[in-house]
Design goal:
Layout: E1 2-9, H1 16-26, E2 36-43, E3 49-56, H2 59-65, H3 68-78, E4 83-88, E5 91-94, E6 99-102
Length: 104
């Protein structure tokens, strides 16, 4: 599994409610995306940094999303460029489904 952290500094900080509305407007874009296990939308407590944490089945699945088109979408939506950091994700503890997932 691969975890990708996408982060972007927001030109003017936003409130949690503004972020919630922006995030809900884009959430349908990520439903049923091949290889995407889970996505978390994140906002720093001061409202100046936002992004997403994505859990993917593979790096190839992740790379299919982060195209120039996706980068342009983020820039248009939030007024800034996203930085991407890739992490190997070896184990996930999910206390809702009561599962421990391990990358085989």
């Amino acid at each position: 599994m691969i975890t990708v952290m996408a982060q972007f500094k927001l030109p003017p900080p936003i409130t949690p409610e503004q972020a919630r509305q922006a995030f809900l407007s884009t959430a349908p874009k990520y439903r049923d995306l091949p290889g995407l296990i889970r996505k978390y939308y994140i906002l720093s407590q001061d409202g100046g940094m936002a992004g997403g944490i994505y859990l993917w089945k593979s790096k190839e699945d992740a790379e299919r999303l982060y195209t120039q088109e996706w980068k342009n979408f983020v820039r248009e939506k939030y007024g800034t460029d996203a930085s991407l950091t890739y992490f190997e994700c070896l184990v996930v503890v999910d206390n809702i489904s009561h599962e421990v997932l391990a990358d085989d």
